Every structure is written in structure tokens, then in C-alpha cells.
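Sequence only, no structure available. Ideas?
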Amino acid sequence: MSSANAIPADSSGTEIPASPKPLWLESLDNGIRRAGDWLNPILVKEARQALKSRQFVITFTLLLLAAWGWTAGAILMLMPRIYYIPSGQFLLTGYYFVLAVPMLLVVPLAAHRSLASEIDDGTLDLLSVTTLSSMQIVTGKLSSAALQLMLYLVALFPCVAFSYALRGVDIFSISVLILLTVSVALLLTVVGLFLASLPGGRAGQLGMLVMMLLIVVGAQFAFGPIAVAIIQEGFEGDLDGFAFVVISTLLYATTISVILLRAAVAQLSPPSENRSTPVRRAIFWHQAIMTGCIAYAFWALDFQLNELFTLIYFAAAFWMIMGTLLVGESPILSPRVRRNLPSSFLTRSLWIWFTPGPGTGLVFAIAGFVTFAISINWIYEWAVISQLMIVQPRYEVLPHAMLLAGYLMFFLSLGRWAMLTMRLRGNIHPAVSLAVMVIVVGIFALAPYSIELFLNDYRGINWSRWQMTNWAWTMEMLLSNRLPDDVPYLVLIMGSITFMIALLTLGRVVMPLKMATPQRVLDEQDDERFEEFSTSDSDFDPLAS
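Reply:
I predicted one. C-alpha cells follow.
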């Protein structure tokens, strides 16, 4: 027996058993091993395929050659000033553009094509019959992309350190630049995985590839000036305010990534699974975190933001898209989903809005926006009372919140009825509801304008209350402070009446009853838990060997 594995003995020669691991260390070891077992099957496969692919080898080689070429060329251009003038900003700017191509372009596109090719070739169906879940498949693709991002970043890290040694750029700006670049790259990768998961055959995947290419190119042009400003200007001003902007941006990117990731997993999951509740949880936490960031900005940082109402418009657009997808869900719940429904009245009343279905989706979207609007209005009123903002009448939040809430209730209710009518002829994918909603909002915007224009012999017309369903013109009148004061109340009443009629027509669909779990399923679950416990107990028992 080697000395490393020998068991110590006392003075009488009796072997003393080794002392067991501390409980916290054993728990940490067990958790890490289980996490590795959960990730390893798909992560190892994806990492091997990605790192051995021609795309990675060529990209990595070109990255090193471009970094070497920029270093040599920049040094020659800066000679002899480089000896006595800070030159780190100039070199770091070039290094960013060298690094941005693989991180913001190559890796997201590669992740998109990797998942899309598996869907087209049918290999994803083979993975679905294994013990791997859809979440493991998607996170495996994302982890493989994150590994490639880390390799690209590590390869260029000596160049970044070299630019720091040349002075002119501080370590805080470099850290923020790297953090934001990695966050944007991961967000683009998640967007690519989400677009690849959308159905549509080869023609649809080709359209998604073109859309993905436009998104990553647009991200290059959008984030490039921000990165250059961070490098060139560095940090100036209030540290708390700058840190808040960075942290809130990272939180926003993270929550949006979780929503898209959950949506991609839902697309790849079988219809019998609960594909809607995880997405709704992610949406809920996204709004809660963003509301907390806004409240902190006004409470602790004294932000001067007279255009606070613009946040209402962003939230309305977000909930309009999310609500349209939710009301396009199928009203039929599988027995597996109904077995996991809450049983008591209190839990059903609070949790039922996270249950799949168009009726619960309608209430969830309306309640989410109304809650956000009320929170923003409270923040606004508190800021005005505390004299943190000098606000003009046109910047009041309440009229904008009422107008948008009314339109949201009106159009989502009409969209749900349109989707129910279409489902009478067959099953409809939730993505179709987006096209239906575009048609609905387009009709109610163009129809009243066209009718009044026709009645006026195609001469110029002014806005009137007959144009209340014309949301585009009415919003423009409100933003220009030319809308009558009673119109937001009228639009809210119109939307509330439509929403109440929609609620009355929901029936028992919005409160589905829980289905009892068959004894056969309970026995199978008990057997699986017992096997898992036995396996984990034998794996981690120090005396098992």
C-alpha cells in the first residue's frame, strides 16, 4: 500500500480509520458531482465537436494572426511617441474590434447553426428519447458557446494586459468592457438558440438564419460605439450612477436571456410537458427586477428623468408581444400538466395565472402591465412630492399608463377571440398569433382613419373621438400634448369593458381542476427516487470501497 493511501496506526499497531470529510465539504462535493453529471453528457459532446471543427480552428488562428498584426502595426504607427505618450487606448480599441468578430459574430452564428442542423437532420429526435431533457440540450449548446468565448478571451488577454501597461486606460474600464462584451455575446447566443428552435422546416430555418445574421451585424454596429466610448472616455462622474447603469444593463440582459432560453426549451419540449409556466416565471422575475432597478434609481441616486413615461411604452410593447404569444397557446392541458396543478383554493387563485392556457395568459399579461404601470406611477408621484424632478404637465405618467392599459386590454382580448376562431379549424402555433395581432391592430388603426377620410371627400381631417381605436394617431396626439384630457379615461373604459367581456366568456377554462395522479405513476416515481437514492448513497459512501 502506498503512503498516500495508508491508514495510520496507533502505538499498539491497530489501524485507525481515516476521519470522515466535514459535512459541508461532502455536500459541496456531492453537489459539484451531480452538477457535472447533469451537464457533462451534452457539454462534452458539444465541446468536442466545436473545438475540433474547422470553423473554430480557422477562427482561432485568424484571431491570433489579427492580434499579432495589430500589435506590430500599432507599435510601428506610434513610434517613437509610444515611449513617452500613453498609448493604451489606441491599442485596446483595435483589440476590441479583433475580439468582437469571433465573440459577437462567429460564436452566436455557430450556436444557431448547431441547433438548427440537429433539428433539420433529425438528430434532436434521437436525443429526445434519451434521459437528456430539453433544458440540458439547450444549456449544453450554450455552455459550449461560453467555452469558446472564454478561449477567445483568454487568447487575447495578454494583448489587453499589454495595452494596460502602455497607460492611458484604467483597469476599471477594461473590466467593464470585458464584462459587457461577454454579456452581449451570451445574449446573442441565446437569441440564436431561440431562433433555431422555432419551427418552420428548411425554408423557415433559412429565414431565421438571415434574421440572425441581421441581428448580429446590427449588434456589432450598436455596441461598437459604446465599447469605444468606454475605452476612450474611461470613467468620469458619479461612481454610483455608472455602476448602477452597468449592473442594471447586465440584469436586463440576463433576465431577457432567461426568457429566451426558457422559450427555446419550450419549443423543443413535447406537447405533454408544461411549456408555459417556466416562461411566465421568467417574465415575472424580469419585470420585478426591472421595477426594482427603476425604484432604486430614483430613491438612492436621485435620477432626473422627466421622460419617465417612456418606460411605460417599452413595458407596453413588451407585454403586448408576450401577451400575444400567451393568448395564442392551446387551451387543452395534458393529464401530466393537470396532475401538478395546485389543489387548494388559495394557491389556485394565486398560482393559476402561471398555468398554461390562453385565458390565464390574457389575465397574466394584463395584470403584469397594470402592476408595472402602478409601480411607475407611485415612483413618479414620490419623486414629484420629494421634489426630485421638475415635471411639465406633458410628462405626467398617469395619462400614458391609462391609455396604454386600455389599448392592451382591448387588443389582447380581440386577439384571443380571433385565435379561438382560428382554432376551430385546427391547431395553431402560438407564433401565428403575432401575425394575427398585427392584422388586428392594423385594421383598428387604418379603418377609422380611412372611413372618416372617405366621408370627408379625402380632404385633410383632424383627430376626433371617432379615432380612439386608432392607437397610433392617439398616442401621437398624447405625446405632443394635444389630446383632450378625457380621452385616456375613455380608452381605459373601452379596454376594461372588452376585458370584462373576455373574462365572462372564459368559463371554467381559466380555473382547470387538478387531476389525481394514477397509482401506477406514483409507484414509478417512488421506484425512480429509490434508485437515485441508492446510487447516490453508494457513490458517496466513504466506506463503500
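The two ends are 15 Å apart (CA to CA).
Hope that gets you unstuck.
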